[in-house]
């Protein structure tokens, strides 16, 4: 075979891509083709020839693919356009033999018969269609509409009845009802509604609230108010408490509101709000609030607000049951506007949420639920037996081996005392001290026995208390004060001696002061001096020296001034080696105040010589990492008595003199005219 040889194999100057070729082809598809020439038929033979060719084309298309229903429909419509109804009918029948499930085919077939006023043929086709495909609602709608347009109301009703036997969807029933209402057949429409509701009850085809509401509104629209109320009541009974819907109760309440039955409306709303879950009752709340604002009094509006707040608190505690602040707010609301049983129920729900961790910090808020519960039972409900049960249950719940709450024990004991049951109160406090001793429990028990004037019991309790906490200075002081009040001075002094002999104390300065004040009250001045001397052996604090000196001043004897001055002398000598210079300054200032009031010129001059000189110094600062952090200014004191500091004082004086001379020379250099003027003058 011959092969063509390309002489020039170089690429063309303009390259065309495949994309350009496809786009060009697509654009040319959109170009309008010229219309085919019109064929004019002049005689019968040409017409028959045209029909023959056209029918042959349609038949060929059908033969190629019998399942394409659009070819059958085009064929039948072409025959219909030629008024060949019999041929078109034959084509539709042939098409139905191929696919009788095709809805469009039945519709076109029936529309052709109706268009050509072949009513009986159309009825026959609709009958065949609804018998063959009874679940196609379009057939039923068109059949009933045709009969109604023909004025055959009985026939249309008969078709509807045949349709209802198939238990169709909701819209079919409402179409039947609207059909009867168009012809003022209210009783027939009510019968259809009843059948519809019966299907709902027995067959559960449409268990929907809106169907009942439509039925009731139908009765209300036609002024059958008793029937409408009965429908609503039947709906409420049918749905029960398991499938309650707020829309039903809102519609029922609005119906009663239209009938001016306001008490009924209020009862309906309250009944629904008590039973419907709160998250599903938002619309109900809204409508109830609007109703109360329109027709209710102040109390009714407050009830609505309380109900809304209760709903909010319910949501909060449901989201987090251990949110005890929400429980407190909820309980406060319930206590203000609810009966005792409701309040108890909420309290029981609240205290059931025990903290999951046995740590006291998690129980601090929770325990107040029990306290409030007990106080409510005692003060509001006046139920002493239930109050006792609440306290006992709370005490059993607390893990006393890990921690306890003294407040609970004390409140329980105080409650029993209010009930005039002293043995139970003592037993409770004794149990608390035995199980979990605490300072608060001892103090509360002792205070109780003091109020009852049981001093022997107080002594025993103080002994137990001091065995439990020997470092507690307040307990020692209170015990000694008790003995002092009872007049047993020796016992009080012995208690103080035991106290200051303890190896570890939390506030020893308070204890020593109390002991000294005790001896001063008893006017035992020698013992007081001995106490001060013993205290000074333990500490050289400046306040102790000042207090000792003031004691000697107030001792009430002739030589008190000399004793006081002697104490100040001793203190000054003792504090020469003290690192805290501020304390030594404080002592000297106290001494100076004493001399200004009671001393002479000699003593005043002497104390003035002892007063230190206050100077400003600088020191270097270091950061935590050891780096240089700059300089800091601070005040220091130079005492004349310190011989070691004398050279420093001389050096300081010389430095001050040099600085003064430097300042004078600088001033002279800055203002030479002033020197000339002075020389001329």
Automatic annotation (TrEMBL):
Residues 661-681 are annotated as: Disordered. It comes from Pelecanus crispus (Dalmatian pelican). Residues 70-360, 382-533 form the Pre-mRNA-splicing factor Syf1/CRNKL1-like C-terminal HAT-repeats domain. It comes from the Eukaryota. GO terms for biological process: spliceosomal complex assembly. Residues 518-584 form a coiled coil. Keywords: Coiled coil, mRNA processing, mRNA splicing, Nucleus, Phosphoprotein, Repeat, Spliceosome. The keyword Transmembrane does not apply. Residues 666-681 have a biased composition (Acidic residues). It is found in: Nucleus speckle. The keyword Repeat applies. Involved in pre-mRNA splicing process. As a component of the minor spliceosome, involved in the splicing of U12-type introns in pre-mRNAs. This is Crooked neck-like protein 1. Belongs to the crooked-neck family. GO terms for cellular component: nuclear speck; post-mRNA release spliceosomal complex; precatalytic spliceosome; Prp19 complex; U2-type catalytic step 2 spliceosome.
């Amino acid at each position: 075979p011959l092969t063509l040889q390309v002489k020039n194999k170089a690429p063309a100057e303009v390259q065309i891509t495949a994309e350009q070729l496809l786009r060009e082809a697509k654009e040319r598809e959109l170009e309008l083709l010229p219309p085919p020439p019109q064929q004019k038929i002049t005689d019968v033979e040409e017409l028959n020839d045209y029909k023959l060719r056209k029918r042959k084309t349609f038949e060929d298309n059908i033969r190629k693919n019998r399942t394409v229903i659009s070819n059958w429909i085009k064929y039948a419509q072409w025959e219909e356009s030629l008024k060949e109804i019999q041929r078109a009918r034959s084509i539709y029948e042939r098409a139905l033999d191929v696919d009788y499930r095709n809805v469009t085919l039945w519709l076109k077939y029936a529309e052709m018969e109706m268009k050509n006023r072949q009513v009986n043929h159309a009825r026959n086709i609709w009958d065949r269609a609804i018998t063959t495909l009874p679940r196609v609602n379009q057939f039923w709608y068109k059949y009933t509409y045709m009969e109604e347009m023909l004025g055959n109301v009985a026939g249309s009703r008969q078709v509807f009845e045949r349709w209802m036997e198939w238990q169709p969807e909701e819209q079919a029933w409402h179409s039947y009802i609207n059909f009867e209402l168009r012809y003022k057949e209210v009783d027939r429409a009510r019968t259809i509604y009843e059948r519809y509701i019966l299907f709902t009850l027995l067959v559960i085809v449409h268990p929907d609230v809106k169907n009942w509401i439509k039925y009731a509104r139908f009765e209300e629209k036609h002024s059958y108010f008793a029937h409408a109320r009965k429908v609503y009541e039947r709906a409420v009974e049918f749905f029960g408490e398991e499938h309650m819907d707020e829309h039903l109760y809102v519609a029922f309440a609005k119906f009663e509101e239209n009938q001016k039955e306001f008490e009924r409306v209020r009862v309906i709303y309250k009944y629904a709000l008590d039973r419907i879950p709160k998250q599903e009752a938002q619309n109900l709340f809204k409508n109830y609030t609007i109703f109360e604002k329109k027709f209710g009094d102040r109390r009714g509006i407050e009830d609505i607000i309380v109900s809304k707040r209760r709903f909010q608190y319910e949501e909060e505690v449901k989201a987090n049951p251990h949110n005890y602040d929400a429980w407190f707010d909820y309980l406060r609301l319930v206590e203000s506007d609810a009966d005792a049983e409701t309040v108890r129920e909420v309290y029981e729900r609240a205290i059931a949420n025990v903290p999951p961790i046995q740590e006291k910090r998690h129980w601090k808020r929770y325990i107040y639920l029990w306290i409030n519960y007990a106080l409510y039972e005692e003060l509001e409900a006046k139920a002493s037996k239930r109050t006792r049960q609440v306290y006992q249950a709370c005490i059993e719940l607390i893990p006393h081996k890990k921690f306890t709450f003294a407040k609970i024990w004390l409140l329980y004991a105080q409650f029993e005392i209010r009930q005039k049951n002293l043995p139970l109160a003592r037993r409770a406090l004794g149990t608390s001290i035995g199980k979990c001793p605490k300072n608060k429990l001892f103090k509360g028990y002792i205070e109780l026995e003091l109020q009852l004037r049981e001093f022997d019991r107080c002594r025993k309790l103080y002994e137990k208390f001091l065995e439990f906490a020997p470092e507690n200075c307040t307990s020692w002081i209170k015990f000694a004060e008790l003995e002092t009040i009872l007049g047993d001075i020796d016992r009080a002094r012995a208690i103080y001696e035991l106290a200051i002999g303890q190896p570890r104390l939390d506030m020893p300065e308070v204890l020593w002061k109390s002991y000294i004040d005790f001896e001063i009250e008893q006017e035992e001045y020698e013992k007081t001096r001995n106490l001060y001397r013993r205290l000074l052996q333990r500490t050289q604090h400046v306040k102790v020296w000042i207090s000792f000196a003031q004691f000697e001043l107030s001792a009430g004897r002739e030589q008190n001034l000399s004793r006081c001055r002697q104490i100040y002398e001793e203190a000054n000598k003792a504090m020469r080696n003290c690192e805290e210079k501020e304390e030594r300054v404080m002592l000297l200032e106290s001494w100076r105040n004493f001399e200004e009031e009671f001393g002479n010129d000699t003593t005043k001059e002497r104390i003035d010589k002892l007063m230190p000189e206050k100077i400003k110094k600088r020191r270097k600062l270091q950061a935590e990492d050891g780096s240089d952090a700059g300089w800091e200014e601070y005040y220091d004191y130079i005492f004349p008595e310190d011989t070691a500091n004398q050279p420093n004082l001389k050096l300081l004086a010389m430095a001050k003199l040099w600085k003064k001379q430097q300042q004078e020379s600088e001033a002279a250099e800055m203002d030479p005219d002033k020197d000339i003027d002075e020389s001329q003058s």
